[in-house]
Design goal:
Shape: globular
Low-confidence stretches: 294-298, 338-347
Distance between the termini: 34 Å
Oligomer: single chain
CATH topology of the largest domain: Spore Coat Polysaccharide Biosynthesis Protein SpsA, Chain A
CATH architecture of the largest domain: Alpha-Beta Complex
Largest sheet: 9 strands, mixed
CATH superfamily of the largest domain: Spore Coat Polysaccharide Biosynthesis Protein SpsA, Chain A
Number of domains: 2
Mean pLDDT: 88
Number of strands: 9
CATH class of the largest domain: Alpha Beta
Length: 347
Protein backbone atom coordinates (compact mmCIF):
# COMPACT_ATOMS: atom_id res chain seq x y z
CA UNK A 1 0.00 0.00 0.00
CA UNK A 2 1.48 3.36 -1.03
CA UNK A 3 1.73 5.98 1.70
CA UNK A 4 0.60 9.51 0.94
CA UNK A 5 3.41 12.05 0.59
CA UNK A 6 3.97 14.48 3.44
CA UNK A 7 4.02 17.51 1.12
CA UNK A 8 2.14 18.24 -2.08
CA UNK A 9 4.02 20.81 -4.13
CA UNK A 10 1.24 22.24 -6.27
CA UNK A 11 1.98 23.90 -9.59
CA UNK A 12 -1.13 25.40 -11.23
CA UNK A 13 -0.38 26.02 -14.91
CA UNK A 14 -1.91 27.87 -17.82
CA UNK A 15 0.05 28.69 -20.99
CA UNK A 16 3.23 28.57 -18.96
CA UNK A 17 5.76 27.32 -21.49
CA UNK A 18 8.14 30.28 -21.17
CA UNK A 19 9.32 29.65 -17.61
CA UNK A 20 7.87 26.23 -16.77
CA UNK A 21 11.08 24.28 -17.23
CA UNK A 22 12.92 26.48 -14.73
CA UNK A 23 10.09 26.05 -12.25
CA UNK A 24 10.04 22.25 -12.60
CA UNK A 25 13.82 22.07 -12.25
CA UNK A 26 13.71 24.01 -8.98
CA UNK A 27 10.93 21.85 -7.55
CA UNK A 28 12.52 18.56 -8.65
CA UNK A 29 15.77 19.61 -6.96
CA UNK A 30 14.24 19.79 -3.48
CA UNK A 31 16.34 18.29 -0.69
CA UNK A 32 13.17 17.12 1.08
CA UNK A 33 12.34 13.70 -0.38
CA UNK A 34 8.77 13.07 0.78
CA UNK A 35 6.89 15.13 -1.81
CA UNK A 36 4.54 14.78 -4.71
CA UNK A 37 4.72 17.34 -7.50
CA UNK A 38 1.13 17.95 -8.50
CA UNK A 39 0.68 19.95 -11.71
CA UNK A 40 -2.87 20.99 -12.56
CA UNK A 41 -3.19 22.45 -16.04
CA UNK A 42 -6.05 24.83 -16.71
CA UNK A 43 -6.56 23.92 -20.37
CA UNK A 44 -3.35 25.42 -21.77
CA UNK A 45 -3.16 26.18 -25.49
CA UNK A 46 0.64 26.33 -25.80
CA UNK A 47 3.36 23.70 -25.22
CA UNK A 48 2.77 23.43 -21.48
CA UNK A 49 1.45 19.84 -21.64
CA UNK A 50 4.32 18.70 -23.83
CA UNK A 51 6.82 20.10 -21.34
CA UNK A 52 5.00 18.43 -18.46
CA UNK A 53 5.04 15.11 -20.29
CA UNK A 54 8.77 15.44 -20.84
CA UNK A 55 9.47 16.08 -17.16
CA UNK A 56 7.05 13.45 -15.85
CA UNK A 57 9.11 10.81 -17.67
CA UNK A 58 12.18 11.94 -15.74
CA UNK A 59 10.60 12.30 -12.30
CA UNK A 60 8.04 9.78 -11.05
CA UNK A 61 6.90 12.24 -8.36
CA UNK A 62 5.27 14.46 -10.99
CA UNK A 63 1.51 13.90 -11.24
CA UNK A 64 -0.35 15.75 -13.99
CA UNK A 65 -4.04 16.59 -14.04
CA UNK A 66 -5.79 18.61 -16.74
CA UNK A 67 -9.04 20.44 -16.08
CA UNK A 68 -11.86 19.61 -18.48
CA UNK A 69 -12.51 23.34 -18.83
CA UNK A 70 -10.69 26.51 -17.88
CA UNK A 71 -11.37 27.29 -14.22
CA UNK A 72 -9.47 30.57 -14.04
CA UNK A 73 -6.66 31.53 -11.69
CA UNK A 74 -8.27 30.97 -8.30
CA UNK A 75 -10.43 28.12 -9.51
CA UNK A 76 -7.28 26.26 -10.47
CA UNK A 77 -5.65 26.99 -7.10
CA UNK A 78 -8.66 25.45 -5.39
CA UNK A 79 -8.56 22.48 -7.76
CA UNK A 80 -4.95 21.87 -6.73
CA UNK A 81 -6.03 21.74 -3.10
CA UNK A 82 -8.79 19.25 -3.93
CA UNK A 83 -6.37 16.90 -5.70
CA UNK A 84 -3.41 17.21 -3.31
CA UNK A 85 -2.61 14.09 -1.28
CA UNK A 86 -0.12 15.58 1.16
CA UNK A 87 -0.52 16.69 4.75
CA UNK A 88 1.10 19.98 3.76
CA UNK A 89 0.49 22.08 0.62
CA UNK A 90 3.20 24.19 -0.98
CA UNK A 91 2.28 26.29 -4.02
CA UNK A 92 4.89 27.13 -6.64
CA UNK A 93 3.68 29.03 -9.67
CA UNK A 94 4.75 28.14 -13.20
CA UNK A 95 7.02 31.19 -13.53
CA UNK A 96 8.49 31.11 -10.01
CA UNK A 97 11.35 29.29 -8.30
CA UNK A 98 12.11 27.85 -4.88
CA UNK A 99 15.48 27.20 -3.29
CA UNK A 100 16.65 23.54 -3.02
CA UNK A 101 16.08 23.58 0.76
CA UNK A 102 12.78 25.48 0.68
CA UNK A 103 10.40 22.62 1.46
CA UNK A 104 12.79 21.03 3.95
CA UNK A 105 13.21 24.21 6.00
CA UNK A 106 9.54 25.16 5.95
CA UNK A 107 8.43 21.69 7.03
CA UNK A 108 11.04 21.69 9.79
CA UNK A 109 9.75 25.06 11.04
CA UNK A 110 6.19 23.73 11.02
CA UNK A 111 6.95 20.67 13.13
CA UNK A 112 6.22 22.60 16.35
CA UNK A 113 2.54 22.56 15.49
CA UNK A 114 2.10 25.47 13.09
CA UNK A 115 -0.61 25.42 10.46
CA UNK A 116 1.05 28.12 8.36
CA UNK A 117 4.74 28.76 7.69
CA UNK A 118 6.06 31.77 5.76
CA UNK A 119 9.51 32.55 4.35
CA UNK A 120 11.19 35.58 2.81
CA UNK A 121 11.26 35.84 -0.99
CA UNK A 122 13.29 37.47 -3.74
CA UNK A 123 11.77 39.26 -6.75
CA UNK A 124 13.21 39.15 -10.26
CA UNK A 125 12.10 41.20 -13.27
CA UNK A 126 12.22 40.50 -16.98
CA UNK A 127 13.34 43.23 -19.37
CA UNK A 128 9.83 44.47 -20.10
CA UNK A 129 8.91 44.82 -16.43
CA UNK A 130 11.83 46.76 -14.98
CA UNK A 131 9.72 49.92 -14.70
CA UNK A 132 7.56 48.10 -12.14
CA UNK A 133 10.46 47.60 -9.75
CA UNK A 134 9.47 50.47 -7.40
CA UNK A 135 5.96 49.02 -7.07
CA UNK A 136 7.25 45.61 -6.01
CA UNK A 137 10.40 46.66 -4.14
CA UNK A 138 8.36 48.21 -1.35
CA UNK A 139 7.18 44.69 -0.52
CA UNK A 140 10.80 43.72 0.05
CA UNK A 141 11.94 46.86 1.82
CA UNK A 142 8.96 48.26 3.74
CA UNK A 143 5.94 45.97 3.90
CA UNK A 144 7.51 42.80 5.27
CA UNK A 145 6.93 40.39 8.12
CA UNK A 146 10.22 41.48 9.68
CA UNK A 147 9.24 45.17 9.70
CA UNK A 148 5.79 44.54 11.15
CA UNK A 149 6.80 41.83 13.65
CA UNK A 150 10.49 42.65 14.31
CA UNK A 151 12.56 39.77 15.65
CA UNK A 152 9.62 37.37 15.77
CA UNK A 153 9.53 33.90 14.26
CA UNK A 154 6.40 32.69 16.06
CA UNK A 155 3.55 35.14 15.53
CA UNK A 156 0.49 34.26 17.58
CA UNK A 157 -3.04 34.72 16.29
CA UNK A 158 -3.63 37.54 18.76
CA UNK A 159 -0.44 39.37 17.77
CA UNK A 160 -1.24 38.92 14.10
CA UNK A 161 -4.73 40.37 14.53
CA UNK A 162 -3.29 43.49 16.13
CA UNK A 163 -0.46 43.83 13.61
CA UNK A 164 -2.45 43.31 10.43
CA UNK A 165 -4.93 46.09 11.20
CA UNK A 166 -2.37 48.71 10.20
CA UNK A 167 -1.46 46.97 6.93
CA UNK A 168 -4.71 45.74 5.42
CA UNK A 169 -3.87 47.28 2.04
CA UNK A 170 -0.42 45.68 1.80
CA UNK A 171 0.33 41.99 1.33
CA UNK A 172 3.33 41.84 3.65
CA UNK A 173 3.22 38.03 3.82
CA UNK A 174 3.83 37.47 0.14
CA UNK A 175 2.66 35.37 -2.75
CA UNK A 176 1.68 31.68 -2.39
CA UNK A 177 5.20 30.49 -3.20
CA UNK A 178 6.32 31.91 0.16
CA UNK A 179 3.77 29.93 2.19
CA UNK A 180 3.42 26.34 3.44
CA UNK A 181 -0.04 25.36 4.70
CA UNK A 182 -1.44 22.28 6.37
CA UNK A 183 -4.11 20.91 4.10
CA UNK A 184 -6.62 20.79 6.94
CA UNK A 185 -6.78 24.61 7.05
CA UNK A 186 -8.82 24.43 3.85
CA UNK A 187 -11.34 22.22 5.64
CA UNK A 188 -11.47 24.58 8.61
CA UNK A 189 -11.43 27.96 6.85
CA UNK A 190 -12.64 27.22 3.32
CA UNK A 191 -11.05 27.67 -0.13
CA UNK A 192 -9.47 30.71 -1.74
CA UNK A 193 -12.05 33.39 -2.56
CA UNK A 194 -13.31 32.56 -6.08
CA UNK A 195 -14.11 36.12 -7.19
CA UNK A 196 -10.90 37.95 -6.31
CA UNK A 197 -8.12 38.42 -8.86
CA UNK A 198 -5.34 40.10 -6.83
CA UNK A 199 -6.13 39.91 -3.12
CA UNK A 200 -7.06 36.21 -3.28
CA UNK A 201 -3.85 35.12 -1.53
CA UNK A 202 -3.59 37.91 1.05
CA UNK A 203 -7.24 37.57 2.03
CA UNK A 204 -6.63 33.87 2.65
CA UNK A 205 -3.48 34.43 4.72
CA UNK A 206 -5.44 36.81 6.94
CA UNK A 207 -8.43 34.47 7.18
CA UNK A 208 -6.17 31.67 8.44
CA UNK A 209 -3.63 33.58 10.53
CA UNK A 210 -6.18 35.47 12.66
CA UNK A 211 -7.07 32.02 14.01
CA UNK A 212 -3.77 30.13 13.93
CA UNK A 213 -0.97 32.68 13.78
CA UNK A 214 2.04 31.59 11.73
CA UNK A 215 5.71 30.66 11.87
CA UNK A 216 8.19 32.87 10.05
CA UNK A 217 11.44 31.60 8.54
CA UNK A 218 13.72 34.64 7.97
CA UNK A 219 15.47 33.13 4.94
CA UNK A 220 15.01 33.83 1.24
CA UNK A 221 13.71 30.48 0.02
CA UNK A 222 11.42 31.52 -2.85
CA UNK A 223 11.66 33.72 -5.94
CA UNK A 224 8.73 35.59 -7.43
CA UNK A 225 9.12 36.51 -11.09
CA UNK A 226 7.60 39.69 -12.52
CA UNK A 227 7.05 39.66 -16.28
CA UNK A 228 4.61 41.22 -18.73
CA UNK A 229 2.36 38.13 -18.96
CA UNK A 230 2.18 37.55 -15.19
CA UNK A 231 -1.29 37.81 -13.65
CA UNK A 232 -0.09 40.34 -11.08
CA UNK A 233 1.28 42.61 -13.82
CA UNK A 234 -1.89 42.34 -15.93
CA UNK A 235 -3.95 43.14 -12.84
CA UNK A 236 -1.85 46.26 -12.21
CA UNK A 237 -2.18 47.48 -15.80
CA UNK A 238 -5.03 46.22 -17.99
CA UNK A 239 -7.24 45.27 -15.02
CA UNK A 240 -6.19 47.97 -12.57
CA UNK A 241 -9.70 49.28 -11.95
CA UNK A 242 -10.93 45.74 -11.35
CA UNK A 243 -8.11 45.19 -8.85
CA UNK A 244 -8.43 48.52 -7.06
CA UNK A 245 -12.20 48.62 -6.73
CA UNK A 246 -13.92 45.26 -7.05
CA UNK A 247 -11.26 43.28 -5.21
CA UNK A 248 -11.25 45.84 -2.39
CA UNK A 249 -15.04 45.71 -2.13
CA UNK A 250 -14.97 41.93 -1.90
CA UNK A 251 -12.12 42.07 0.62
CA UNK A 252 -13.84 44.52 2.96
CA UNK A 253 -17.15 42.72 2.52
CA UNK A 254 -15.48 39.61 3.89
CA UNK A 255 -13.92 41.53 6.77
CA UNK A 256 -17.29 43.08 7.60
CA UNK A 257 -19.58 40.06 7.37
CA UNK A 258 -17.88 36.68 7.00
CA UNK A 259 -18.20 34.81 10.34
CA UNK A 260 -14.59 33.66 9.94
CA UNK A 261 -13.50 37.25 10.54
CA UNK A 262 -15.28 37.70 13.88
CA UNK A 263 -11.96 37.68 15.82
CA UNK A 264 -10.55 40.42 13.59
CA UNK A 265 -13.71 42.52 13.91
CA UNK A 266 -13.40 42.30 17.69
CA UNK A 267 -9.74 43.36 17.54
CA UNK A 268 -10.68 46.21 15.20
CA UNK A 269 -13.34 47.49 17.61
CA UNK A 270 -10.82 47.50 20.48
CA UNK A 271 -8.06 49.11 18.45
CA UNK A 272 -7.24 52.75 19.20
CA UNK A 273 -8.49 54.36 17.12
CA UNK A 274 -11.06 51.72 16.10
CA UNK A 275 -10.77 50.34 12.57
CA UNK A 276 -14.06 50.50 10.64
CA UNK A 277 -14.15 47.95 7.81
CA UNK A 278 -17.63 49.00 6.73
CA UNK A 279 -16.57 52.60 6.28
CA UNK A 280 -14.02 51.53 3.67
CA UNK A 281 -16.56 49.22 2.06
CA UNK A 282 -19.10 52.05 1.83
CA UNK A 283 -16.61 54.45 0.24
CA UNK A 284 -15.54 51.87 -2.35
CA UNK A 285 -19.16 51.13 -3.21
CA UNK A 286 -19.83 54.84 -3.69
CA UNK A 287 -16.73 55.17 -5.86
CA UNK A 288 -17.71 52.31 -8.11
CA UNK A 289 -21.23 53.66 -8.47
CA UNK A 290 -19.87 57.04 -9.55
CA UNK A 291 -17.94 55.24 -12.32
CA UNK A 292 -20.57 52.78 -13.50
CA UNK A 293 -23.57 55.08 -13.18
CA UNK A 294 -25.57 52.04 -11.98
CA UNK A 295 -24.96 50.45 -15.38
CA UNK A 296 -26.76 53.06 -17.52
CA UNK A 297 -23.76 54.18 -19.55
CA UNK A 298 -21.54 52.52 -22.09
CA UNK A 299 -17.83 52.83 -22.73
CA UNK A 300 -14.87 51.22 -24.47
CA UNK A 301 -14.13 47.49 -24.30
CA UNK A 302 -12.07 47.78 -21.10
CA UNK A 303 -14.83 49.78 -19.45
CA UNK A 304 -17.43 47.30 -20.61
CA UNK A 305 -15.31 44.47 -19.22
CA UNK A 306 -15.19 46.24 -15.88
CA UNK A 307 -18.96 46.73 -15.89
CA UNK A 308 -19.42 43.08 -16.77
CA UNK A 309 -17.19 42.05 -13.85
CA UNK A 310 -19.17 44.25 -11.49
CA UNK A 311 -22.40 42.77 -12.80
CA UNK A 312 -21.18 39.28 -11.94
CA UNK A 313 -20.32 40.41 -8.42
CA UNK A 314 -23.72 42.04 -7.95
CA UNK A 315 -25.45 38.85 -9.04
CA UNK A 316 -23.53 36.95 -6.36
CA UNK A 317 -23.67 39.64 -3.66
CA UNK A 318 -26.97 41.45 -4.41
CA UNK A 319 -26.84 43.41 -1.15
CA UNK A 320 -23.91 45.41 -2.53
CA UNK A 321 -26.07 47.08 -5.13
CA UNK A 322 -29.63 47.23 -3.88
CA UNK A 323 -29.50 50.23 -1.53
CA UNK A 324 -28.95 53.93 -2.40
CA UNK A 325 -25.45 55.05 -1.46
CA UNK A 326 -26.57 57.63 1.09
CA UNK A 327 -28.23 54.84 3.08
CA UNK A 328 -25.61 52.22 2.43
CA UNK A 329 -23.54 52.51 5.59
CA UNK A 330 -26.57 52.22 7.84
CA UNK A 331 -27.87 49.32 5.81
CA UNK A 332 -24.58 47.44 6.15
CA UNK A 333 -24.53 47.90 9.90
CA UNK A 334 -28.10 46.68 10.17
CA UNK A 335 -27.32 43.68 7.98
CA UNK A 336 -24.33 42.72 10.11
CA UNK A 337 -26.25 43.03 13.37
CA UNK A 338 -29.12 41.00 11.89
CA UNK A 339 -27.33 38.00 10.49
CA UNK A 340 -23.59 38.57 10.53
CA UNK A 341 -23.22 36.89 7.18
CA UNK A 342 -21.90 37.86 3.79
CA UNK A 343 -24.78 37.89 1.31
CA UNK A 344 -24.40 35.47 -1.56
CA UNK A 345 -21.16 33.96 -0.24
CA UNK A 346 -20.40 30.83 -2.24
CA UNK A 347 -20.25 27.65 -0.17
Amino acid sequence: MNRSPLVSVCIPTYNGQTYLRECLESVSAQSFPDIEILVVDDHSLDDTLAILGEYSKRDHRIRISRNTKNLGLVGNWNRCVELAKGEWIKFVFQDDLIAPTCVEKLVSAGEKGSSMVVCRRNIIFDAESVELQPVYRKYQDTFTVEKIFPGATEISAERFREGVLGYLDFNFIGEPNTVLLRKNVFLRYGPFHPHMIQLCDYEYWIRVAIHTGFTYVPETLATFRVHRDASSVINRTARKKRKDLIDKILFYNELSFNPMYAPLRLAASRHRPPVDFMDVLTRKIQEIRSITGDGDETGDSAEEGFRSDWGVILSTYPSLGCVPSNRFSGFLRKMRSTNGRSQGKPA
